[in-house]
């Protein structure tokens, strides 16, 4: 296929965002329903559109963005225009700054950002001026010489007050000690004793000294208290003016954010417009029930649908892929297909796709239907099963069939939670369950204390350079793209995996994996990440490339039996 000259086909008008599909598409049937965005196999027309766009990306030279350093997520939307022609719209997920031609000469055929830039910029300019004035005012208040001098004076007086009060207290203590000693010496002096009247006068004078010192100490504290109160009152007046200015600044920033949400508006096929604020606010108030994830409106699917609905096009099929280098913290594979980010787009697409028939959700289908659950071992308190791939350990929101559900049916008299640990739905292999609450407690304790020996077998997409080693990459959940996990050396939890090469099978590699911690998706991320083995597990639809199944198998377990305390070992071979 020759290089596509998109700039010849497109100009700055919105209508010319439409890109004709190259090649013969007469033999390809149109989809009956629109793509279910969160888990899908691309329609053949969407694949053609993605191939077309990838050819352009592979051969273009007008875009100065360096994809070998920072990759991007691209999307295509196959549409039927008002003349009945089949073509597609193209997009990339990015912040608005990435769309400015003066930054990287972004080609014009990509669809535009959603928010009303003209009104938004006008509003922002006014608010930006106010914010700058407030920021300058706050800076002046905080750096006012009188304010700084007042803070320094208060601090110095506080130190001086503390010093003088401490010294006076020490002097009072010394004086008290001297008076006590003088009285004792006088009373015990038998050589020249005082008359009772003289002794009484002495004791009275010593008492008067104590009273005078106490009054002087009280006066000292009162004087300092008055001085410090005067200074602190003056300081608080200045600090109050600063806090009020900062509050005004924060409120304006929040209002600017709300205005941005209100000017970011989404159109659906029925012609109904809702803003980002409308989609995330409480139905009975003007308060946000949750904060939209940053740049949600700049995701591909909303932008593509917005352009299609604006032009009166009919959306037919969707496809998204990653192009270029992966970010360090996340895992993205060059040219790999990806679903729409549900965390960012669910509320938006719930509105935009209203009235549009979509494919059935694979997430609500039961992949374990018809699969047998092999019992590897069972006794009065312990059951070990060989869980098939694509089989839930426990029942989910939409799928009730699971290992836990089937064990409940098989052992109706079992007590306790049954489940001791879990395997990902896509992972096959050994899963331990217990039939009594006490045995569950005993076995789970071993998993928590990491005394259970575990070994997994995985088939990797590529080859690795070392026969064995250890991967230490801390993991945390990707709050913007659940259920994916990400590497974070700042906030991630410790995750450690030992690996051992078993065999090279052409361009693929079979390894044993020994997890020392049990983080979510730990083995999958440690294999796929560039600082790990840098090659995903075959069939990993989150961190690698989709296939018939995830080639990850929990093949070996060793732990203490909960009642006999004897060491038990279980193994079952992988079927890949």
Structure description:
The protein has 576 residues and is of the alpha+beta class. It has three domains: 6-115 and 271-363, no CATH class; 142-258; 366-571, Pseudouridine synthase (2-Layer Sandwich), CATH 3.30.2350.10. The chain is built from twelve helices and 17 strands. Strands 7, 8, 9, 10, 11, 14, 15, 16 and 17 form a nine-stranded mixed β-sheet that branches. Strands 1-3-2-6 form a four-stranded antiparallel β-sheet, with helices on both faces. A two-stranded antiparallel sheet has the order 4-5. A hairpin with a 3-residue loop joins β7 (374-378) and β8. α5 runs antiparallel to α6 and α8 (300-311) packs parallel to α9. The chain is flat, with a radius of gyration of 37 Å. The two termini are 36 Å apart. This is RluA family pseudouridine synthase. Residues 169-197 are annotated as: Disordered. It holds the Pfam family PseudoU_synth_2.
Number of helices: 12
Query: From the alpha-carbon coordinates, what is the Rg to the nearest angstrom?
Result: 37 Å
Beta-strand residue percentage: 15-25%
CATH architecture of the largest domain: 2-Layer Sandwich
Order of helices and strands: HEHEEHHHHEEHHEHEEHEHEEEEEEHEE
Largest sheet: 9 strands, mixed
Shape: flat
Separation of termini? 36 Å
**CATH class category label of the largest domain:** Alpha Beta
Stretches with pLDDT under 50, minimum 5 residues: 7-12, 96-103
Derived structural class: alpha+beta
Instruction: Count up the domains.
Output: 3
């Amino acid at each position: 296929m020759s290089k596509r000259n998109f700039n010849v086909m497109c100009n700055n008008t919105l209508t010319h965002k439409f890109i004709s599909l190259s090649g013969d598409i007469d033999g390809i049937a149109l989809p009956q329903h629109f793509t279910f965005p969160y888990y899908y196999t691309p329609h053949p027309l969407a694949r053609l559109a993605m191939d077309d766009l990838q050819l352009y990306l592979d051969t273009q030279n007008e875009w100065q963005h360096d994809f070998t350093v920072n990759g991007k997520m691209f999307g295509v939307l196959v549409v039927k225009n008002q003349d009945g022609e089949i073509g597609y719209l193209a997009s990339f997920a990015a912040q608005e700054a990435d769309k400015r031609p003066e930054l990287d000469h972004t080609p014009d055929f990509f669809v535009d950002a959603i928010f009303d830039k003209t009104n938004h910029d006008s509003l922002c300019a006014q608010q930006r001026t106010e914010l700058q004035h407030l920021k300058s005012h706050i800076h002046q208040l905080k750096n006012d010489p009188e304010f700084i001098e007042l803070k320094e004076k208060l601090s110095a007086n506080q130190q001086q007050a503390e010093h003088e009060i401490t010294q006076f207290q020490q002097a009072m203590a010394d004086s008290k000690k001297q008076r006590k000693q003088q009285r004792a010496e006088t009373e015990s002096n038998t050589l020249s004793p005082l008359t009772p009247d003289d002794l009484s006068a002495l004791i009275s004078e010593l008492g008067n000294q104590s009273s005078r010192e106490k009054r002087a100490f009280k006066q000292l504290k009162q004087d300092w208290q008055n001085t410090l109160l005067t200074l602190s009152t003056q300081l608080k007046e200045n600090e109050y003016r600063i806090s009020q200015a900062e509050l005004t600044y924060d409120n304006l920033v929040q209002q600017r954010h709300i205005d941005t949400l209100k000017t970011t508006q989404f159109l659906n096929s029925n012609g109904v417009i809702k803003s980002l604020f409308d989609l995330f606010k409480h139905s009975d108030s003007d308060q946000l029930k949750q904060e939209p994830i940053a740049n949600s409106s700049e995701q591909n699917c909303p932008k593509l649908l917005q352009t299609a609905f604006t032009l009166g096009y009919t959306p037919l099929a969707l496809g998204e892929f990653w192009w270029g280098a992966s970010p360090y913290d996340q895992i993205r594979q060059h040219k790999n297909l990806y679903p729409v980010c549900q965390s960012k787009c669910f509320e938006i697409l719930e509105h935009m796709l209203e009235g549009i028939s979509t494919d059935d959700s694979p997430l609500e289908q039961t992949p374990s239907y018809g699969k047998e659950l092999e019992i590897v071992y069972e006794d009065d308190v312990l059951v070990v099963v060989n869980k098939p791939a694509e089989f839930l350990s426990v029942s989910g929101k939409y799928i009730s069939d699971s290992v836990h559900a089937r064990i409940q049916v098989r052992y109706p008299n079992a007590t306790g939670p049954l489940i001791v640990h879990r395997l990902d739905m896509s992972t096959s292999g050994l899963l331990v369950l217990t039939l009594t609450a006490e045995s569950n407690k005993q076995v789970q304790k071993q998993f928590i204390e990491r005394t259970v020996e575990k070994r997994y077998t995985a088939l990797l997409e590529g080859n690795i350079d070392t026969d064995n080693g250890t991967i230490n990459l801390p993991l945390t959940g990707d709050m913007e793209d659940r259920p994916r996990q990400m590497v974070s050396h700042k906030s991630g939890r410790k995750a450690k995996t030992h690996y051992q090469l078993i065999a090279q099978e052409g361009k693929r590699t079979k390894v044993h994996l020994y997890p020392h911690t049990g983080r979510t998706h730990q083995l999958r991320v440690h294999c796929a990440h560039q600082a790990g083995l840098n090659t995903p597990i075959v069939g990993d639809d989150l961190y690698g490339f989709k296939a018939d199944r995830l080639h990850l198998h929990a093949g070996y377990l060793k732990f203490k039996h909960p009642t006999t305390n004897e060491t038990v070992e279980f193994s079952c071979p992988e079927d890949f």
